[in-house]
């Protein structure tokens, strides 16, 4: 064969492709010769951390991924879960951290585009999106610019594409100063008998390219995302792709229309590492070879080399294997939507990945070793040191009312309205609960009563202090948020954001967090069906807080039974379900300590998974029985912040008692786990509530009546009453005044 | 009553609009692809919201120049009711069927929230389901909804009762001149508005204030 080698392969060139000397040696051993420049690019694209999961695979395998409702677990474009009546929910969360730091608008926009494509590639129409965003300290010089750009990018793409954003997270911490996190979630609805997969089947079938043309944007993006940042990141801006939501929207409609014709055998979107990754995955999964002729690829620019075409990350592109007799039908659909359609290759039976360009063979590689048999590492890791628990007597004092006002009006607990009002939260007309509550809720089109709930959660402070408990807590909180709407948690997706895995202490965080996630998922029957790993989130050697974001999906048999977080009426009893008799005891790693005293010490709160499940199942049953009028889980800021959020959302005050013998700071700001607040439409002296308490007692669940709704102020025990209106002003002010400042 | 919904590539509230017309009118409207040669016989033609052609040029400018809009113009001239919502409103303005211009929101940001609307003229085929001065709720979701008209045009449309809706109670989300949220053509058979009444038509939406607009246009209100 003729193999062009220009430029020459030097150790520097190999290193600049992110390949370690031993990995390069593996390539030489595998192919028995020096790779071509294009081949080197292909290896770097397939074997980088982002695409190969080489550091994480060993541990990801330990996660529970199966369940009675799971149709497709990890390994495809997205997970698929049965929601009954022949319908399925298809979902995944994926990071776009590195590009969003380099170029916030396009980085975030293409993150949204990528995850939407993952969902509709499987034949599902996207019905909900969420975004978990984490930025540096608000006072850091770049933070405001990044928030502005990322939020505009998320909105710019999602709004134009036409999917409602129903939830998400926004958090600030100095540890994200040099690496913000953009974790995009999307979910789509499909019929269970019309799910499409990436595994190619059949020899000699056409491989068809669809969508936008290939340009030079994003060349080497996946390799960039697999390295730490230094001070030269500005130079990496050309590796960020540019999004075109208009083309994506047409691609969605064209793909769904095409899938309806029965022409599609296999389909794979071109995401990270573009044409290379999609072609190799389709072939490797189907135990087939692929031959591509690059002269047939629709290009946006002239004189593109084979290397550039293979590594381009131009957006809004798809690769399909089609039934040869349906090619004309397929072409017609794509012409209607004015999208490019080109047969660029065919499947073969020799398990080779062959690339032709200008009459030459520029790559000829074994497809299995490139794809599903890529290298895998068991990286050394060290057990994270368990932090010392706070001393019992160590309860820094502050006036409870003042503390609550400061927290509600601070950067961590303040309203995210400034963010979510830039997202279309209502499009499609099915949004039942908008952002601002525990979980977003939509009704399921094509069904009279069914609804779906979505949430995204992780507490990076807890994960840093105690990765195992933090991993458990992230899962438990997602499960809890779904439960608080009345939904049955079905399954989750994980987006694991960590630092450099080559450092044993970072690898230790990863290993323990995954262990915690696995234990919690097993205990709660909440399998992980899809996910993504983002490593090397470090700048100049300093890693981010370990951030394993969990996206959870729950099912409501009747959405009319779901409840929100706002108080709905005066004189309703408020019950605290779950947790210890003191109501609050755990101050370690709390927001109270961090934001009011600048302290990040103590152990993370531990999650008792058996109690979590018992409590949640009880709460869900109560909600579905119709006695619950509002429900909210307790998280950052504890009981005090949760009560304030319920009062503000409902514009109704409440009076809540102290606990005899417990420090009010612990009662109101402790972050003990597994707790919910609810209001019920029951007479607090009546038989029905007595029966509720009997049941709770029998289950070993603490469920005290702690106060009553009503009035215009929120009174926490002996503390000065706070006007709900004043709380709202503080809560709504922080974000807009920060962004305007 | 027959309704037809025109769809351009990039529109994305077409499904919401079709659902609203079907639920309120009882029958599914005809769906007209922009490349179709003609619009089927209809008493109400609707251009829904979204981002036609990505709105990469001035919003609605490309769709307004497509051949199907000549058919819309012909029908409008014959008195057929035409409703444009959000991007549909932008397209009708760009097509010269409605006066004024829609500029970028003063915040320079996309805004999705609920606003209050005052029904300014309740004596048209679109608004007779409401009372004059009635305050209704409606969601908005747009980036370019800041209505502007020169002083003379403004004076004329106000004087001729061609302001359909105004943002009320300080809820103007985009800086629109005189709080204008929706306007009629001279014959009052063409209405354009930025808010999305189609997203507030049933209990599941948390209210049905938008319903009367469609019920009126579909002649369910006498």
TrEMBL record, chain A:
Positions with a binding annotation for Mg(2+) 1: 94, 532
rRNA-binding keyword on record: no
Residue ranges of domain Phosphoribosylformylglycinamidine synthase linker in the record: 17-54
Gene Ontology MF, one: ATP binding
Pfam families for this protein: AIRS, AIRS_C, FGAR-AT_linker
Alphabetical GO biological process terms: 'de novo' IMP biosynthetic process
Chief location: cytoplasm
Pathway assigned in UniProt: Purine metabolism; IMP biosynthesis via de novo pathway; 5-amino-1-(5-phospho-D-ribosyl)imidazole from N(2)-formyl-N(1)-(5-phospho-D-ribosyl)glycinamide: step 1/2
Catalytic activity: N(2)-formyl-N(1)-(5-phospho-beta-D-ribosyl)glycinamide + L-glutamine + ATP + H2O = 2-formamido-N(1)-(5-O-phospho-beta-D-ribosyl)acetamidine + L-glutamate + ADP + phosphate + H(+)
Residue ranges of every copy of the PurM-like N-terminal domain listed in the record: 75-189, 436-555
Subcellular location: Cytoplasm
Keywords, sorted A to Z: ATP-binding, Cytoplasm, Ligase, Magnesium, Metal-binding, Nucleotide-binding, Purine biosynthesis
PANTHER family given in the database record: PHOSPHORIBOSYLFORMYLGLYCINAMIDINE SYNTHASE SUBUNIT PURL
Subunit structure: Monomer. Part of the FGAM synthase complex composed of 1 PurL, 1 PurQ and 2 PurS subunits.
Protein name: Phosphoribosylformylglycinamidine synthase subunit PurL
UniProt organism field: Devosia sediminis
TrEMBL record, chain B:
PROSITE patterns linked to this entry: GATASE_TYPE_1
Pathway assigned in UniProt: Purine metabolism; IMP biosynthesis via de novo pathway; 5-amino-1-(5-phospho-D-ribosyl)imidazole from N(2)-formyl-N(1)-(5-phospho-D-ribosyl)glycinamide: step 1/2
A Gene Ontology biological process term: 'de novo' IMP biosynthetic process
Subcellular location: Cytoplasm
InterPro entries: Class_I_gatase-like, PRibForGlyAmidine_synth_PurQ
EC numbers, comma separated: 6.3.5.3, 3.5.1.2
GO CC terms of this entry: cytoplasm
Record's keyword annotation contains Plastid: no
HAMAP family registered for this protein in UniProt: PurQ (MF_00421)
Protein known as: Phosphoribosylformylglycinamidine synthase subunit PurQ
Organism of provenance: Devosia sediminis
């Amino acid at each position: 064969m003729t193999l062009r080698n220009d430029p020459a392969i030097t150790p520097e060139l190999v290193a600049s492709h992110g390949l370690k000397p031993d990995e390069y040696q593996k390539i030489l051993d595998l192919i028995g010769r020096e790779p071509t420049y294009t081949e080197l690019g292909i290896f770097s694209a397939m074997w980088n951390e982002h695409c190969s999961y080489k550091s994480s695979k060993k541990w990801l395998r330990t996660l529970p991924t199966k369940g009675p409702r799971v149709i497709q677990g990890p390994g495809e474009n997205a997970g698929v879960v049965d929601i009954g009546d022949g319908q399925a929910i298809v979902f995944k969360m994926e990071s776009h951290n590195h590009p969003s730091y380099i170029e916030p608008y396009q980085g975030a926009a293409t993150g949204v585009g990528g995850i939407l494509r993952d969902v509709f590639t499987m034949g599902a129409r996207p019905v909900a999106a969420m975004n978990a965003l984490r930025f540096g300290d608000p006072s850091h010089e770049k933070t405001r610019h990044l928030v502005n750009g990322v939020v505009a990018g998320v909105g710019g793409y999602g709004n134009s594409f036409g999917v409602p954003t129903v939830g998400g997270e926004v958090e600030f911490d100095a540890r994200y100063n040099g690496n913000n996190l953009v974790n995009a979630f999307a979910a789509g609805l499909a019929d269970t008998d019309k799910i499409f997969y990436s595994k190619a089947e059949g020899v000699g079938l056409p491989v068809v390219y669809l969508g936008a043309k290939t340009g030079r944007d994003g060349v080497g993006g996946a390799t960039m995302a697999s390295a730490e940042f230094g001070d030269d990141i500005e130079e990496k801006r050309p590796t960020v792709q540019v999004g075109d939501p208009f083309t994506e929207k047409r691609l969605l409609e064209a793909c769904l229309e095409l899938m309806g014709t029965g022409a599609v055998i296999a389909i794979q979107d071109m995401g990270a590492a573009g044409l290379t990754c999609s072609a190799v995955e389709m072939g490797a999964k189907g135990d087939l070879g692929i031959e591509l002729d690059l002269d047939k690829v629709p290009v946006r620019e002239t004189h593109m080399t084979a290397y550039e075409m293979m590594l381009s990350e131009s957006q809004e592109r798809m690769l399909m294997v089609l039934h040869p007799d349906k090619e004309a039908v397929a072409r017609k659909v794509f012409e209607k939507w004015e999208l490019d359609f080109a047969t660029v290759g065919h499947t073969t039976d020799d398990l080779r990945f062959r690339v032709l360009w200008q009459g030459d063979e520029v790559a000829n590689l074994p497809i299995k070793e490139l794809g599903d048999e890529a290298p895998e590492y068991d990286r050394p890791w060290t057990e994270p040191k368990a932090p010392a628990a706070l001393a019992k007597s160590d309860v820094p004092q502050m006036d409870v009312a003042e503390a609550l006002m400061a927290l509600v009006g601070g950067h961590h607990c303040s309203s995210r309205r400034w963010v979510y009002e830039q997202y279309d939260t209502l499009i499609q007309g099915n949004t039942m609960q908008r952002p601002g509550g525990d979980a977003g809720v939509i009704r399921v089109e094509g069904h009279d009563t069914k609804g779906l709930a979505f949430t995204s959660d992780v507490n990076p402070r807890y994960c840093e202090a105690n990765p195992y408990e933090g991993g458990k807590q992230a899962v438990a909180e997602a499960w809890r948020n779904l439960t608080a709407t009345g939904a049955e948690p079905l399954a989750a997706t994980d987006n694991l954001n960590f630092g450099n895995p080559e450092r044993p202490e970072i690898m230790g965080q990863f290993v323990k967090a995954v262990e915690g996630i696995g234990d919690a998922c097993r205990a709660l029957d909440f399998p992980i069906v899809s996910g993504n790993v983002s490593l090397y989130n470090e700048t100049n050697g300093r890693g981010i807080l370990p951030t394993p974001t969990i996206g959870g999906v729950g099912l409501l048999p009747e959405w009319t039974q779901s409840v929100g977080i706002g108080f709905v009426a005066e004189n309703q009893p408020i019950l605290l379900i779950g947790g210890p008799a003191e109501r609050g005891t755990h101050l370690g790693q709390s927001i109270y300590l961090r934001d009011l005293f600048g302290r990040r010490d103590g152990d993370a709160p531990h999650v008792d998974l058996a109690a979590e499940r018992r409590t949640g199942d009880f709460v869900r049953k109560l909600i579905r029985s119709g006695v619950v009028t509002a429900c909210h889980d307790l998280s950052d800021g504890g009981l005090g912040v949760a009560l304030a959020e319920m009062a503000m959302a409902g514009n109704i005050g409440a009076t809540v008692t102290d606990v005899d013998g417990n420090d009010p700071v612990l009662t109101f700001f402790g972050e003990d786990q597994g707790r919910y607040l609810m209001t019920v439409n029951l007479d607090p002296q009546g038989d029905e509530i007595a029966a509720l308490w009997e049941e709770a007692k029998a289950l070993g669940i603490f469920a005290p009546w702690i106060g009553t709704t009503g009035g215009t102020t929120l009174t926490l025990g002996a503390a000065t009453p706070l006007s709900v209106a004043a709380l709202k002003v503080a809560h709504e002010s922080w974000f807009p005044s920060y962004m305007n400042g | 009553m027959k309704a037809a919904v025109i769809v351009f590539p990039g529109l994305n509230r077409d499904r919401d609009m079709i659902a609203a017309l079907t639920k309120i009118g009882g029958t599914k409207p005809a769906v007209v692809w922009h490349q179709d040669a003609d619009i089927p016989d209809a008493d109400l033609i609707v251009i829904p919201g979204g981002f036609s052609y990505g709105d990469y040029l001035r919003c609605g400018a490309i769709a307004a120049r497509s051949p199907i809009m000549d058919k819309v113009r012909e029908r409008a001239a014959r008195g057929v009711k035409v409703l444009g919502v959000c991007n549909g409103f932008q397209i009708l303005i760009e097509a010269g069927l409605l006066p004024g211009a829609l500029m970028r929101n003063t915040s320079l940001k996309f805004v999705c929230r609920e606003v209050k609307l005052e029904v300014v003229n309740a004596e048209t085929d679109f608004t007779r389901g409401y009372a004059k001065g009635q305050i209704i709720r409606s969601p908005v979701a747009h980036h370019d909804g800041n209505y502007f008209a020169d002083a003379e045009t403004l004076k004329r449309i106000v004087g001729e009762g061609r302001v359909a809706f105004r943002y009320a109670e300080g809820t103007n989300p985009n800086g629109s001149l005189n709080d204008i949220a929706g306007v009629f053509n001279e014959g009052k058979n063409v209405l354009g508005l930025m808010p999305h009444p189609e997203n507030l038509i049933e209990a599941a939406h948390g209210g049905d204030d938008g319903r009367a607009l469609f019920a009126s246009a579909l002649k369910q209100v006498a």
